[in-house]
């Protein structure tokens, strides 16, 4: 595959890191990888403790319900902390801005996915494709809702019973939806070793970047 003219990657908004030479491309900074890894462990801990609270077989196997409840509550409260701490990183802030932008090429990417079109050039994407942008927006909103409903359930004196009942309903069903979406996210990651390597090491192979993110270049940075 030939290179795209002007194709370059920047993590700080000013310095191009991709040239015509070198086998790998810098994709994520150390701060971004730390935020992702720490958040992932907190989410998995929150999901695992939730399963132990709601699945009778797991509840009997684990026991110590009070401890499980405490771990679930605090792991849930801590989920936003790595992201908030990581905002000191310019690279993270830049990528959050990219995730928050939805352009015409993203609409093309979604249409191609819905049509199962895999022809070359049918799925244009910048540093993040449309699916990653939608996932990031959905999970961010879901976490905020889970935090709000969880606090209503935890601090029973701050809201009337009808609010707490509604919060419990939303919390339980949204937790199920989050579990399904996370399973899909992990399945996609398992199917793409190079994407996982990029999150683990911070860099990816140049051919993978050009094939999966052909619009990842200087004008989008």
**Assembly status:** single chain
Instruction: Give the tally of β-strands.
Output: 2
Radius of gyration: 20 Å
Tell me the series of helices and strands, N- to C-terminal. EHHHHHHHHHEH
Summarize the biggest pleated sheet. 2 strands, antiparallel
Widest sheet: strand ordering:
1-2
Shape: elongated
Distance from N terminus to C terminus (CA atoms, Å) equals: 22 Å
Beta-strand content bin: under 5%
- Per DSSP, the total helix count is 10
Helix-strand category: mainly alpha
Mean pLDDT: 86
Write up what this structure looks like.
This protein is mainly α. 66% of the residues lie in helices and 3% in strands. It is built from 10 helices and 2 strands; from the N terminus they run βαααααααααβα. It has a two-stranded antiparallel sheet with strand order 1-2. Residues 1-21 have low confidence and may be disordered.
Give me some keywords for this one:
disordered N terminus; mainly alpha; 10 helices; 66% helix; two-stranded antiparallel sheet; 2 strands; 221 residues
In terms of topology, how is this protein built?
Elements: E1 24-26, H1 30-54, H2 56-62, H3 65-78, H4 80-86, H5 90-99, H6 104-114, H7 130-154, H8 161-190, H9 193-201, E2 203-205, H10 206-212
Antiparallel strand pairs: 1-2
Helix pairs in contact: 1-2, 1-3, 1-4, 7-8
Short description:
With 221 residues, this protein is mainly α. It contains ten helices and two strands.
């Amino acid at each position: 595959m030939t290179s795209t003219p002007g194709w370059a990657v920047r993590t700080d908004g000013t310095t191009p890191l991709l040239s015509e030479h070198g086998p790998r491309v810098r994709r994520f900074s150390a701060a971004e990888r730390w935020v992702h890894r720490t958040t992932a462990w907190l989410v998995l801990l929150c999901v695992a403790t939730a399963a132990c609270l709601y699945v009778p077989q797991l509840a009997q196997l684990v026991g110590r319900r009070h401890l499980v409840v405490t771990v679930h509550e605090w792991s849930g409260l801590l989920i936003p902390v790595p992201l908030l701490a990581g905002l000191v990183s310019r690279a993270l802030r830049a990528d959050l801005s990219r995730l928050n932008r939805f352009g015409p090429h993203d609409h093309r990417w979604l249409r191609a996915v819905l049509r199962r079109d895999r022809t070359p050039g049918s799925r244009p994407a910048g540093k993040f494709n449309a699916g990653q942008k939608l996932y990031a927006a959905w999970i961010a909103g879901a976490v905020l809702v889970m935090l709000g409903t969880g606090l209503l359930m935890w601090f029973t004196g701050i809201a009337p019973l009808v609010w707490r009942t509604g919060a419990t309903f939303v919390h339980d069903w949204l937790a199920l939806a989050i579990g399904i979406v996370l399973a899909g996210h992990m399945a996609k990651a398992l199917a793409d070793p190079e994407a996982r390597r990029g999150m683990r090491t911070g860099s990816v192979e140049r051919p993978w970047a050009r094939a999966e993110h052909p619009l990842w270049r200087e004008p989008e940075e």
